[in-house]
Write a structure and sequence with these properties.
It is built from 9 helices and 13 strands. By secondary structure, the protein is α/β, with parallel strands linked by helices. The radius of gyration is 18 Å and the shape is globular. The chain has helices spanning about 35-40, 55-65, 80-85, 110-120, 135-140, 195-200, 205-210, 215-220, 245-255, and strands spanning about 5-15, 25-30, 30, 50-55, 70, 95-100, 125, 130-135, 145-150, 155-160, 180-185, 190, 225. The longest helix is centred in the middle third of the chain and has 13 residues, at about 110-120.
């Protein structure tokens, strides 16, 4: 009988966000944002350990304050993925879950949807998730990352631009709320340990640099990213104006 994989969730949480400094510590409904993210990951029974990877003692102390585990990583990590790899140095992890520290509305079921294909099928290197886009505004918004997939839910491409193109679709065929314009990529990843380690050894790729999307580095070297659909959206917090939306989602999720 084979030993089940040891699954670790690492949440990168950098203090020095340009648009919202100290973002992981911002209070949402009286709790720091990073605590909401940790609690969602802890709700996935397959995950053995949840770790916050940070560059700041204030975040480390806040995580310890609510009973979490935090690991200090170098301030000069070039990306969140590099920060995760640094946090895992010397630790056992067969499969690594990456939930962004600014996604307080991420739900355990979405994490599970991204994780399950890697447990069931060895052909997948990376797992993530997506939801349908049903408004043209979201479809055209650069901050909403889009993904196109094949019939097996394997990602073909990610972009901030509207994909697939609507250039040859009659305008009368499109109606907000009734049309699926495309699919929004959610901010979580599940890696096999060897895939993560291979990623951080690579230089940023041309498409990654063009689109400002790290996941394209995987696609450009032929890695297979599976991206199943979920119905559960999340709210990322990038600027102060996002805070009320995040709190409204948390109230709805937790029945406040």
């Amino acid at each position: 009988m084979s030993t089940p994989p040891h699954i670790v969730c690492v949440i990168p949480a950098r203090y020095g966000s340009q648009r919202l400094p100290g973002k992981p510590l911002i209070k949402l409904l009286e709790k720091p944002m990073i605590e909401w993210v940790c609690r969602a990951a802890e709700g996935v029974k397959e995950i053995s350990e949840v770790i916050v990877a940070t560059d700041d003692e204030r975040i480390k102390e806040a995580v310890k304050g609510f009973g979490g585990i935090a690991v200090m990583t170098p301030q000069d990590c070039p990306s969140g993925t590099d920060r995760i790899a640094a946090a895992l140095s010397g630790r056992r992890a067969d499969i690594v879950v990456n939930v962004q520290g600014d996604e307080p509305g991420m739900q355990a079921e979405s994490i599970r949807r991204a994780l399950t294909p890697l447990l069931d099928n060895s052909r997948f290197d990376v797992g993530t998730a997506c939801i349908p886009i049903t408004t043209r505004a979201d479809f055209e918004a650069p901050h909403v990352v889009k993904v196109v997939r094949d019939s097996s839910d394997v990602a073909l491409y990610f972009s901030r631009s509207p994909i697939p193109s609507l250039a040859r679709v009659e305008s009368g065929e499109l109606e907000d709320g009734k049309t699926i314009y495309g699919f929004k990529h959610l901010g979580l990843y599940v890696y096999r340990r060897e895939s993560l380690e291979a990623f951080v050894r690579l230089e940023p790729s041309p498409l990654e640099q063009r689109e400002k999307l790290e996941q394209l580095r995987f696609l450009e070297v032929g890695a297979t990213i599976v991206c199943p659909e979920t119905s559960l959206d999340s709210v990322g917090v990038d600027v102060e104006e996002d805070i009320p939306r995040a709190e409204a989602m948390l109230k709805k999720l937790h029945g406040f």
